[in-house]
Design brief:
about 25% strand, seven-stranded mixed beta sheet, binds calcium ion, 13 strands, alpha+beta, Immunoglobulin-like
Length: about 240
């Protein structure tokens, strides 16, 4: 006799409506498209530097979410080829800029040369907003890499199985899913010990950075003692 009434009261006490079954709370923060978007873009925090690159407007309002990069979307903008304050295996880094106008997911990005070097970049967050910058480092820790804040890292290794930049001239290739996104070639005469090589802000395209005239040593002081502008806009050439 009491069973039906008692179960009814128990369900009410548990916050359930016995006439409609168990109450299921909606997923928090997932009830509108806008909230889901801002959540996804929030994960890109590490990539946003905001130092005056053209189009550096923070996360895009694109509702489709981040997409994979295609040729022309991402360019190499600065390289620390021959650090002086620390050994090359700790102090090399590559800066890239998203010039696509959309959020990109760089998970799977590869740094390579035209020889045997090839290293997959590891990220804490692989989402890069339009106009935003990331720096990929041989060594993540700013205390041992010359003072660079890194958004990704790779295995430093010459002669295969990783990536390294020769001080005597080399190529830097950004690859994604077997597609080449950007290539930069440099000679040993362009490399200054303790100074990164930066792309002139007037040459910010994947073809513009093919010209050696568009590259010059950078002069901003880094905390480790070398000079460069990792994560920041470059000096003009
Ligand atoms: Ca080197
Ligand atoms: Ca290029
Ligand atoms: Ca820079």
């Amino acid at each position: 006799m009491c069973y039906t009434f008692c179960m009814h009261m128990l369900l009410l006490l548990l916050g359930c409506n016995p006439d409609q079954g168990i109450f299921v709370h909606p997923y928090p923060g997932r009830d509108t498209g806008d909230q889901a978007d801002s959540g996804g873009n929030g994960a890109s925090g590490g990539g946003y530097i905001g130092d005056g690159y053209p189009g550096n407007n923070g996360p895009s309002s694109d509702d489709d979410g981040p997409r994979s990069p295609s040729p022309g979307d991402l360019l190499i903008s600065e390289m620390m080829i021959n650090p002086a304050s620390v050994y090359d295996e700790y102090g090399e880094w590559v800066e890239v800029v998203n010039i696509s106008g959309e959020d990109l997911d760089l998970y799977g990005l590869v740094l390579a040369d035209e020889g045997v070097d090839s290293g997959v970049v590891s990220f804490s967050s692989s989402i890069l907003g339009p106009g935003d910058v990331m720096v990929f480092c041989a060594e993540q820790s700013a205390s041992s890499n010359g003072g660079v804040s890194c958004q990704g890292d790779y295995l430093y290794q010459s002669f295969g199985g990783g990536f390294a930049m020769s001080n005597g001239g080399d190529e830097v290739i950004l690859g994604f899913d077997s597609v080449v996104l950007d290539v930069v070639r440099y000679s040993g005469s362009q490399v200054v010990s303790g100074q990164s090589l930066g792309l002139d802000p007037d040459c910010m395209s994947t073809s513009g950075n093919d010209s050696s005239n568009c590259w010059c040593p950078q002069y901003d002081a880094m905390s480790g003692g070398d000079q460069g502008s990792p994560g920041k806009s470059n000096d003009g050439c």
